[in-house]
Amino acid sequence: MFSRSIIATRQAYAKLHRPLSAVASAAKTLFTPEVKKSAYGASAKHNKNIIWSEELFTPAQRRELVGAGHGGCTVWITGLSGSGKSTIAAKVEKELLEMGLNAYRLDGDNVRFGLCKDLGFSPAAREENIRRVSETAALFADAGMVTITAFISPYKESRALARKIHEDARLTFLEVHAHVDLATAESRDPKGLYKKARAGELSNFTGIDDRFDEPKEPDLKLHTADMSVPACSGAVISEIKARGIISGKFRLNA
Length: 254
Known about the structure:
- By secondary structure, the protein is an alpha/beta fold.
- It has helices at 2-30, 59-66, 85-98, 123-142, 156-168, 182-188, 193-198, 229-242, and strands spanning 43-44, 47-51, 73-78, 103-107, 146-150, 172-179, 220-223.
- The strands form 2 sheets. The protein has a 5-stranded parallel β-sheet with strand order 4-5-3-6-7, with helices on both faces.
- The chain is globular, with a radius of gyration of 24 Å.
């Protein structure tokens, strides 16, 4: 009688803890040191004593663990001041969050309050600004975030570096050109910066006394003089979906 009670207790315990066993088994599979990706584990080129600390899972396994249901990527919106970059980026971020995705926006002015507040607007400072943001965006994307950046990023070399940083880490990078001609951008002049540049109060201002290298083959080109903000946002989200970042289970407004 007593032995039967023990057996029944053991069976009930096993049944109760079967889901935990399954979780433990899954965790053992996920956290296996044999998983490798890219050249992780290699020494840094600039210092051989710096070694990459490897993850114990792949990006797909990270997605499964956090239950996000989507991958990470960087949407890099470039364009003249007044082209609508920040407005579009804010709209995309809001729509993605409303759809249930993990999204975050990095804005050209906002990062200069902290991350890049020590930088000016000389060509060298602009390059360093974009390098820092590129590395930050890549970290966010690797963490599974849909990262939207809004930066003039006027030089083709710095945008190429941003793409390379992501591609070297096997992360999706989408270059979006918020296109508008200079006359239209200057007529908008939301911050009054063109007026100051024309008056000589600002130097190294893109489009006035500093160059803007228009992307020759962006992943997406938005003609913001003819497209509404919702239309631009919808086009960006459709492009993200086309790259397989967003699965079908999310509600799409575009």
